[in-house]
């Protein structure tokens, strides 16, 4: 007796009991204090859900402030079995609000088909309600969601791929000054292709560190030249000079490495892209942290 919809109709226990005794769905106990279904609930398995979906229509075009009673009265002329108003959670107002659409279930597939294909179904100020089978609506939403996700993913990838040329704010940023100038070195591997697999970024880094170099990172991409990032400004100059004089230092696991300086403009683009990637990663972490914090309140 405590749920709101019943309370709007009546709060008189005897009146409610008398009304329920005429129901074909539920029965009232002898002491008139309990109720139960005449037949047990159907098993809510996948087959049952599919059978219900086949005779359920998606209907849109109702006023956003419409009440369930008005919608039920409207559908009573069509012999419907069940009507579900579709609501969403309004985060700002912290309440559920009507979407203006319903899922309407009919006793048979034929009745549902007749309603969906009906020429024109007006409702108050709506000239013709939008109608489609629930299965069609669900598939359309799946496609729409997939397209939105792909669009969002593509946009993120485009943002991450923006280099210094396309982003003057990054190119001109004083943050680039934090990176050491003339600290990048290109290198290639001089050996038959079948022997190149012996050389890894870790092998190269360990070898160069053993020679006293401050190596921050060795990057070996599928295509040469590969890249060495040193930790000190102007280190690339002394690095190349040292290995030009002492050729014994340019071999790793018996494979010869050829070093050359990275041109200034290419170095600037490299660090600009590195800075953009760091910002993008930091932004992504912050977004995840914010979403996590929203789910936990002290």
From TrEMBL:
Molecular function, one GO term: RNA binding
Organism: Cuerna arida
Domain HTH La-type RNA-binding: 1-45
Keyword Ribosomal protein attributed: no
Domain of life: Eukaryota
Protein name per its UniProtKB record: HTH La-type RNA-binding domain-containing protein
Keywords, ordered alphabetically: RNA-binding
GO cellular-component term (any): ribonucleoprotein complex
GO biological process, one term: RNA processing
Region (Disordered): 154-175
């Amino acid at each position: 007796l405590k749920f709101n919809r019943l309370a709007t109709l009546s709060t008189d226990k005897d009146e409610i009991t008398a009304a329920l005794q005429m129901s074909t769905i539920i029965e009232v106990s002898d002491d008139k204090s309990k109720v139960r279904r005449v037949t047990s609930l159907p098993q809510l398995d996948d087959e049952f859900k599919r059978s219900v979906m086949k005779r359920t229509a998606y209907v849109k075009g109702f006023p956003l402030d419409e009440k369930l009673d008005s919608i039920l009265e409207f559908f009573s002329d069509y012999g419907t079995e069940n009507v579900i108003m579709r609501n969403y959670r309004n985060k700002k107002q912290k309440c559920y609000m009507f979407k203006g659409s319903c899922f309407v279930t009919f006793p048979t597939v034929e009745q549902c088909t007749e309603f969906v294909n009906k020429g024109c179904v007006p409702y108050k100020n709506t000239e013709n309600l939008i109608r489609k089978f629930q299965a069609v609506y669900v598939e359309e939403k799946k496609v729409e969601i997939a397209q939105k996700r792909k669009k969002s993913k593509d946009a993120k990838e485009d943002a991450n791929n923006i280099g210094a040329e396309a982003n003057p704010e990054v190119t001109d940023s004083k943050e680039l000054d934090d990176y050491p100038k003339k600290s990048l070195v290109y290198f290639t591997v001089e050996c038959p292709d079948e022997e190149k697999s012996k050389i890894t970024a870790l092998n190269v880094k360990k070898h160069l560190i053993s020679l006293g170099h401050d190596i921050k990172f060795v990057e070996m991409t599928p295509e040469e030249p590969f890249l060495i990032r040193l930790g000190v400004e102007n280190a690339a100059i002394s690095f190349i000079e040292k290995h030009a004089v002492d050729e014994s230092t340019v071999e790793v696991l018996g494979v010869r490495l050829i070093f050359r300086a990275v041109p200034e403009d290419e170095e600037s683009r490299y660090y600009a892209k590195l800075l953009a990637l760091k910002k993008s990663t930091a932004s992504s972490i912050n977004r995840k942290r914010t979403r996590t914090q929203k789910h936990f309140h002290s």
